[in-house]
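To: structure subgroup
Subject: Chain for Friday's discussion

All,

I'm putting the inputs and outputs inline so they're searchable in the archive.
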Amino acid sequence: METLWSKGPCSIRELLEAFPKNERLAYTTVQTVVYRLEAKKAIRRASKFGNAHVFEPMVSRDSAQHRMIDDLVALFGGRRLPIVTHLIESGKLTPEELREARAALRKARAAPLKTAKQEKPE
């Protein structure tokens, strides 16, 4: 999916060649994944060039990321704190990511206040 999002429409061969040589999978493995993604309506056949079908994404990167995060939270019984705590304590967040997280937290804190103010009758 990353290759389709970054490069745009690709054939199975082009998707295969996007992997580094030392990590390259068998053509049939990539083909199987592509067909499964197509069956799940994550990608579609955009066109045909000779015998090769060209595939393009049907879901955006953001949409896929949100769905995966929602699935991860569901694995934790809906509890988000263990995930956030792990990300912070593991030291794997960059300073920029920490700044963005702080900004998102400030925005989330301010949002209910705005909503509550808007709902009060004047």
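Points worth raising on Friday:
The helical segments are 2-7, 12-17, 27-39, 61-75, 81-89, 95-119.
The longest helix spans residues 95-119.

D.
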